[in-house]
Structure formats: C-alpha cells, structure tokens
Amino acid sequence: MPPGQKRKASEDSSSVPEASKRAPRSEKEEGSRPSFLDATEMVKINVFESPSNDKKEGGEKVNSAEVTKKPFLVHKAILCHYSPFFDAAFNGGFQEDTTQELDLPDTDPIVFGILVEWTYSQRVIMPTTRTCNDRFTLMKLWVLADRCLIPRLQNDTLVCLEARRATLGWMPSPCDDTFAYLYDNTAYRSPLRHYFAHRFSNAMVIAGSQGLERTSKVSEISENLPQPMLADIITCMVEQVRNPEFEGGRVRSLKISEEELQKFYVPLKDMESL
C-alpha cells in the first residue's frame, strides 16, 4: 500500500492482514549497518501533508496552496538498510531508482524528520517545537514506520508513548480526534490499537472506582471514540476481569511493566543480525 493511502476501516473483515504480516518486517538480514565511509550516495524524499487531513486551529482546513513539499536528503544505504519500503523504491528498478527522488504525500514533515533522525541515531527524539501534541506525533510516527516497514522504530515509538502516558496520565478529551486517525490508518488487530484499548480500559476501570463524577467524565469521552475502538476496549475489560491482577472491581495500577509492554510490540525477524 502506498504510504499516502489510508486504510479502509473495515473491522469485520478477516481479509485485512495484521500489521506485522503484510510484508517482511525486518531490516536487511545480511550484514551490519552501513558505515558512513561507504554510505556516500544520497536520496531525496519530498514530504508534504495532504490538505484534506491538515487543519488549522479551530478545525479550519488548510488551503492546498498553503501546502508545500519539504525535501529531506538522506544517505541511501542507511535508509534502505532499515526500511524495505525505501529499499524497494530506490533499488527495485522503479522510476525512483533512476531519479533517486521520492514523493511521500500525506506525511507530516515533523514526523518524517523524527524517522530520519532514528535511522541515524536509533533514538526517538522529539522536536522541541511542534504543532502536534506528543501523543498524536508519536501515533503518526508509529503509523509512518508501519508503512515504511520499520518494526524496530514502531516498538521504540511505543516505548516513548508509554513513558509519556505514565508520566502525564494521558486521557483523551471529548473533542479528541486522534483515535479516529489511529483507526483510519491502522489494520484490524493492529498492536497499537490493542495498546490504546488496553490502556483506556484500565483507565475506565480505575475511574469507575473513583466515583460517579469521574465515571461520567469517562463516559462522555467514550461517546466520541470510534466504534471499533469501543469494541476493542470492551474486549480488554472482559480480559481484565479474568486477570488475577483484577481485585474487587479494580486494577492495582495504571503502570505497565516492560514485559507487559512487549505484548504490544511488532514482531522482529533476525534481530541477532542487527
């Protein structure tokens, strides 16, 4: 699927492949990360957000004339080492193989910049100035890594998401539309969907133990969530009731262990070669 194309939110179709099974999900299996001594050839990635998905403050749509491409020059060998998508584009005999230039529509330049930084440093580094909140930025980074077939970046992004959630205690507002983005841009049974449904179900259970006012606030928020997400949350809540950690109608903690977090990882292949 092209990076700029959204997935159809068909939740009852078993034909939609899981995120980790759509294509080979690992970096190149042979050899180590390219050295800068050898990685001298550069490729150009033109990134621009779609006007239909871009909004100003207050929900006003951005005029197409206001959307401009932002070029990124990246070492070809390093980018292709971590991304089978870019490897196929620049080494697969397509037009991009000749021009060494690729357009990525419907892509946030800030998010793509984080992806490029990760290919060089293996660290998810958030910008100090940005227009999106951390959760939405990281959510879009996970989706972009999914489209570019970089599972290690997806998992590193999830670690950042959980660290910020644990620190800030994220709870969506009634007008929050980030989860609509999540369900529009991920596949059925996506690990990221499962993670957020699990975290939200925990929050709902704890809110229920804190009184009517807190429960009412959570219910108001829930009304604005995508219907498929509500179904996923209910499934997670049923699983919680059957979990030994569930005591007297409440969970012990909102914290999640590293081992538990790994249940939401995208599977890696041949990690020992990296």
From TrEMBL:
Residues 19-32 have a biased composition (Basic and acidic residues). Residues 67-128 form the BTB domain. It comes from Lachnellula arida. Residues 1-40 are annotated as: Disordered. The lineage of its organism: Eukaryota, Fungi, Dikarya, Ascomycota, Pezizomycotina. SUPFAM superfamilies: POZ domain (SSF54695). This is BTB domain-containing protein. InterPro entries: BTB/POZ_dom, SKP1/BTB/POZ_sf.
